[in-house]
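My convention is simple: the sequence line spells out the residues, with the fold written below as integer tokens. I include a record here:
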Amino acid sequence: MKRALGLLLLLSAPVAQAEILKVEIDGPIDPITSEFITSAIEQAEDANAEFLLIRLATPGGLGISMQEIIQSILNSPVPVVCFVAPQGARAASAGFFILLSADVAVMAPGTNTGAAHPVFPFGMENKIMLEKVKNDAVAGLRAIVQQRKRNYELAEKGVLESKSYTAQEALDGGLIDLVAGDESELMAALEGRQIKRFSGTSQVLTAEGQDVRVVEMTFRQKILSSIANPNVALILGVIGLLGLYLEFSNPGLILPGVLGGISLLLALLGFSLLPVNYIGILLILLALGLFVAEVTVQGFGILGAGGTVAMILGFLFLVDSPFPELRISYGLAVAVAIPFALIAILLLHLTVKSVRLRVTTGTRGMVGLHGVAQTSIEGDEGWALVAGERWKAVSATSIPQGARVKVVASKNLLLVVEPYAGSGVSLATATEEEG
């Protein structure tokens, strides 16, 4: 009786439904994108999800990040569906490889994919290195496409000839599996669809009626994704340098030092996630050196102008990427370099001027002032009136009372004076003069 009751309860219990996890990628492929997709695949495995849906819109990105994503997709225990959407989006370059590596490749009408020829930044292509990278990309794509039973000839043209394909062309050519207008249409098309995993096993998908849970980036990943933008990293770096300079030149302000330190560390973290070009760093250092030279020697503006040009070029070459989305924009480079150059030259000028300025406080500030011998001064005996104050004075030569004197040194509260043959000034009106 108990066994029958237990069996009845088991049969009447609702069957747990697997959910569908979804991530949205809208932007360049970078290390944060790779980490995000990899962690989403792990979450899908832990949740025993039906499949992971990647909604993709990208102009391309870094090759190493693309390889990490492809490796995660091919080894995923959960099927991965890649959907290029919304209409008007593209999966170019690295996105082309990611799309073709998915268990199910889908595009929305009005989207395109392809243009995956390897490129180097700023047209600086080494033919031998480019050939090696191209052959490696083609070999990797061939291994993926042949296992996925997709059209290798069209895929190869997407790499070697930078061919791009519309959604319908990709479908007719056997590059992708489906064309869907939106996610509801996609779910209907996936319902009951049998797919063959990269490992060779088969699986039937259940899509309609499933809960779709959007996987969001963690707070850490959102911060890293923001500062991995080279334009944001550049602005943080400039703010950091100016803040630290203000703090070091005016100790005790505290706020510029704190904000400058945080901004500079965030900028360094952001650039550590990007392919940095050392030529860009050297150009920026050259620019700083020219700014210093403009202030310390009479550059007549030529050194400052040269430093500004070097800084603009340094900003443009700083991030070594062929994709505009992963480089510092020309407009921002000019907008940051010119004000930074003006501020840097002004601050350096004030600093150099303050260093060269004669000390005017304490006993050191007495050096160079003129006064009157209040008593006769012989050796270490005597008093002088300097700047309206009575000081004990010593002299290597004898100075009679009432004679003009000049302070040549100071030792604690003792002034070392010498006779001064300048124009006479009365004891009552003895004031500070320049030597």
